[in-house]
Amino acid sequence: MARVLIVGAGLTGSLCAALLRKAAARPLHLAVWDKAADSGGRMTTASSPHNPQSTVDLGAQYITCTPDYAKKHQSFYDELLAPGVLKPLTSPIEGMVTKEGDCNFVAPHGVSSIINHYLKESGADIYFRQCVTQINLRDDKWEVLRETGSPEQFDIVVLTMPAPQILQLQGDIVNLISECQRQQLESVSYSSRYALGLFYEAGTKIDVPWAGQYITSNPCIRFISIDNKKRNIESSEIGPSLVIHTTVPFGVTYLGHSTEDVQELIFQQLENILPGLPQPVATKCQKWRHSQRTNTNPDVMYTGV
Q1: Per-residue pLDDT reduced to its tens digit, 224-246
Q2: 296: pLDDT confidence band, cut at 50, 70 and 90?
């Protein structure tokens, strides 16, 4: 039985695992490793420590299906729409630019439910807090080393993490990546930003006419979403949750600062946009060092959010 390791439990890794399982002509052992504590990657959904049903999407906010995507990949959307993993986005998002023929979808159970759907379909063994450090070639097999745990050998290794993290790997892989491949990986660039999730007590009211809003006049904040409202979820037992995404220039400027300091700066700017906002019962500040691809290299097989 072939042993296959997929490094990264985000959208690319989870979908790759599901497609491999579906296409495999013979039995194979699939394993997915991720250095984080949960699945999702840049489609992460965080939960309130006071109520796990209160969640907020810290990464991707909604899924846009363009006419070209629909033509090429309609079966993927249908697979997610049928069980309710995705539903049409009907809540008002102020400032959202929609092109003719585009369809927008939201994940009612949080955007990471898309990743969990594909991981379940794959039947893979999933391991978190597994940070890969080296990859060596040993007797026609790939020996994979991590920060904790013993090395393991696989017949196939698929790397789905951001390009800079691939280039940081040590071992034989350094010499096995050709100069052309290295240049292609080095040519991939990313924006950086922060996301701040706020969780509120049940019964808290956030009285605004929108579920999401793009901000164009603030040096710090680019997007705000009331996540439960975005997903059309209203419950007397679950408090509202709110997420703020910063601008890229702010993210780059404060990339080396602590999340505590950045969180305070975001709160200061948020007061200017939503004055009198209630005090949250919990917060989650996420640094996205590799947020979105800022260039397109058709020779690099890589999918980002």
Answers
A1: 999 999 999 888 899 999 999 99
A2: low
Measured CA to CA, the distance from residue 187 to residue 193 in angstroms comes to 20
Report CA 281 to chain centroid distance, whole Å.
24
Torsion of the alpha carbons at 30, 130, 190 and 292, rounded to the nearest 10? 60
pTM, two decimals, is: 0.92
Task: Map the chain to HEC letters.
Answer: CEEEEEECCCHHHHHHHHHHHHHCCCCEEEEEEECCCCCCHHHCEEECCCCCCCEEECCCCCEEECHHHHHHHHHHHHHHHCCCCCEECCCCEECCCCCCCCEEEECCCCCHHHHHHHHHHHCCEEEECCCEEEEEEECCEEEEEECCCCCEEECEEEECCCHHHHHCCECCHHHHCCHHHHHHHHCCCECCEEEEEEECCCCCCCCCCCCEEECCCCCCEEEEEEHHHHCCCCCCCCCCEEEEEECHHHHHHCCCCCHHHHHHHHHHHHHHHCCCCCCCCEEEEEEECCCCECCCCCCCCCCCC
| Per-residue pLDDT tens over the stretch 244-293 | 999 999 999 999 999 999 999 999 999 999 999 999 999 999 999 998 88
Torsional sign, CA 299, 300, 301, 302: negative
Q: Is 152 left (phi over 0), alpha (psi -120 to 50) or beta?
A: beta
Helix axes 11-23, 112-122, angle to 10 degrees: 30
